[in-house]
Amino acid sequence: MEEKAIICKELTKQFGDFYAVNKISFEVSKGEIFGFLGANGAGKTTAMRILCGLSYPSSGTASVAGFDVYRQQESIKKNIGYMSQKFSLYENLTVLENIEFFGGVYGVSRKEIKERSNDLLETLGLQKESRKMVGELPLGWKQKLAFSVAIFHRPKIVFLDEPTGGVDPVTRRQFWDMIYEAAASGITVFVTTHYMDEAEYCNRISVMVDGRVEALDTPANLKHQFSADTIDEVFYQLARGAKRSAD
């Protein structure tokens, strides 16, 4: 039986009469790359905040890395990594200082930080840039470093919120190679993206529309189900169908 990294059942977040997340249910297996798609305002960020232990749901149940989202938020935070397009690194610290800082935040020992830092710098090819301010690095290198820092403590799950925004296609492909390596090592990857072509790289994807999960399957199965050539077409059909229902 596959080990489940995330389990959601009827998870709901309500603000007054508005349902930001409306009874969503899904499971994510250990080591899976799970795409979480949806337009702005679809409820992706709200759901992710709950799963990261940063917000309580209004109802429903969920567990992340085996910990309950109501009672064990601190345990969840210790077992996950997180990377956002908007903020992941301190630009006024050097490459090495960022690695050491986040390693300490995640509870990695000083000895391990030193050992892993050297390995990480070598892997990324940043040995010569280790004393350089992160703000001086090209965006693509920042994103690769941010991802590496997010999994520096070897978490069970890493949450990636629009991780490749603004980077060129070649760098995006390289970034996804890093994601594949992390998944192969047993880390579960939960990723939101507005690049629909990136959805093709995921093992499975869910599509949220107006707070609900309207579709969930492998990219190939979803394209077959909706007679579409791309995930972008699937997304368009779901969004159009939801609009017609609302009208």
TrEMBL record:
Keywords: ATP-binding, Nucleotide-binding. SMART domains: AAA. GO terms for molecular function: ATP binding; ATP hydrolysis activity. Residues 6-235 form the ABC transporter domain. It comes from the Bacteria. Signal peptide: none annotated. The keyword Nucleotide-binding applies. InterPro entries: AAA+_ATPase, ABC_transporter-like_ATP-bd, P-loop_NTPase. PANTHER family: ABC TRANSPORTER G FAMILY MEMBER 20 ISOFORM X1, ATP-BINDING CASSETTE, SUB-FAMILY H, MEMBER 1. This is ABC-2 type transport system ATP-binding protein.
